[in-house]
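DATA SHEET
Item: assembly model
Revision: 1
Owner: S.N.
Input lines:
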Amino acid sequence: MDLRSPALLRRVWGDPVIDDSKPIFVQIAELIENDIVDGVLAEESQVPSTNEFAAFHRINPATAAKGVNRLVDDGILYKRRGIGMFVATGARAAVIGRRREDFYEQFVRPMATEARKLGIDGEQLAAMLAREPGLGTQNMAGQREGAM
Amino acid sequence: MENVSKVYRDVRALDGVSITLEQGKIYGLLGRNGAGKTTLMSLLAAQGFASSGEISVFGEHPYENERVLSRICFIRESQKYPDDFKPEHAFKAAAIFYKNWDNALAMQLARDFQLPMKRRIKKLSRGQLSAVGVVIGLASRAELTFFDEPYLGLDAVARQLFYDRLLGDYAQFPRTIVLSSHLIDEVANMLEHVILIDKGKIILDDDAENIRGSAITLAGASARVESFAAARTVLHREHLGALTSLTLEGTLSPAERRAAAELGLELGPVSLQQLVIRKTLDAAGVEEPADSPDAARKNARMGASR
Amino acid sequence: MNRAVGVAKMQLINKWTFLGIPAVILVGSFLLTLAIWAIIPANVGTVYSGAGQAVMWYFFGLGIQALTLTFPFALGLSVSRRNFFIGTVGLFAVIAAGVSALYVVLGILETATQGWGLNGRMFALQWVADQPWVVQLFFYFVLMMFLFLAGFWGATVYRRWQATGTVIMVLSLSILLLGALALISVQGWWPAFGAWIITLTPGSIGLVVLGLAVLLGVGAYLTLRKATP
């Protein structure tokens, strides 16, 4: 159980991770998912208990439990009786898969809207993307596996 | 509590209050000064008496009922202690009556709050006095524990300590906790359920998550904002030049969010504190003058500590 | 019942209030009296001292204190009013019994030592000391209970009805008393009253005071039932 994950650490550096933007339990679930995707929480590794989450983020334990349970329902986490919560095998792929579907809504659309506002056209966008390491079309094939 | 009223001469401290507290949750009892929070709690603890209505705790009426009373702890905001008592005496007394009393916890908390155990309680500072009450409340592990504005006199560090200890102990030993507070922002994330009371009446009684999800702010160019929100209930309106910020009831579907983003409108959350303020003002029938920057300042002040 | 005992324990947490100060008063007034007597020339005859009653008045104050200071706290700890009453009054009864016994013993000692070698009379006041020790015990006990309950009752009235209520209560009692006196005067009962007074013994006074103490106790309990912290 590594509490030093980037997502969890942000609170220590003063940036409140839990805010009013979404239901708290959703934010908890997302924080855990972030860590799974980032590889900080490996598959079959143990996740902090709901009480630890609640204490760390200063939220109600029932709310933390709700977030964790949501991930259990989604098959991302599972419970080992008497021991605790663990990351399920295939969880990372599942989360990444879901996030890829949301990627368009969450990131591309807002980017497109902003680009339109600023008068940036498709070609200029593509050129900007090519500047990003690993995103140019030639490199994609090599980068598909194990992207961190 | 069913339709409980409490009348003091000409003042209705509680007016037709009906609430149910479920076991094992942390409740926030919010409201302005004199709204009736302390009265409500003291009635549940049978320290005060209702003028009318029914009260039942753990299935029985709490008045003079030792079976029920021994499971309740209610230390008031300005609790009186026997004259020459020191904190160590108060804890000894609490240990006699609370069968779940954890003395090790009490000692640890006293150290955390830097309570002078050998100084007379009447000579303690306001913050230290609050700390005594808080320690008793926490260490009693009573099944129904009330904290009546426990933060009075406590500085920010001590308050944070209290919240942390409360959450930690609650997680290990779940019980029903009722916390009354003005500092909504500080406790918002800890509450599972919120009860908002104003002038003796309950104006909100709902899960914290539901309340948070019940409104949204929309900001942007005035014309676009107004037209977008045309069909919706506007809880609050603010102008700044050509910009308008509206607090709307309800939430936006993903499609609506997209539409708003296209229009260049910004969506933002509404904090529990803002919602509570809004509800309280509405219940009081206070109309905000539309363009007033004072309204924004007043809102900010209301959430500040007493 | 256990919680009533708990209340007694709580009242004893601060040993001074119920135990320490009465002890100090007793010892102090005793020694002081002896010192004063030692100074007075021996041929004055029997010297008297009211030192015995000093601690009684403290008990009156104790009655007030026991309620005023401890009741709100007891309620905060969710003790029932009944258990508070039983525990506190019960504790005091035990103490009163103890002090009464002490008085009887000291009275015997006093007579045996010819007034502590100084011909003094502090505990073995003639009128009381001539009675069998049981009656003496009863007399002192009832007196102490009366004073304690008077303080306790007064404090309860104040707690329940605040200043206004207390004033009204005092006025009512005064009126009752005056009324009784007036009645006696009007009916010319004074001679009969006087004759009756002379026949009073510590035993019969004790009974009267007992009756009053019981009244006070019941009154205090009933008032307490609806008192708030």
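QC remark: The interface with chain B takes residues 3, 6, 9-10, 13-14, 16-17, 65, 69-70, 72-73, 75-83, 225-226, 228-229 of chain C (CB under 8 Å).
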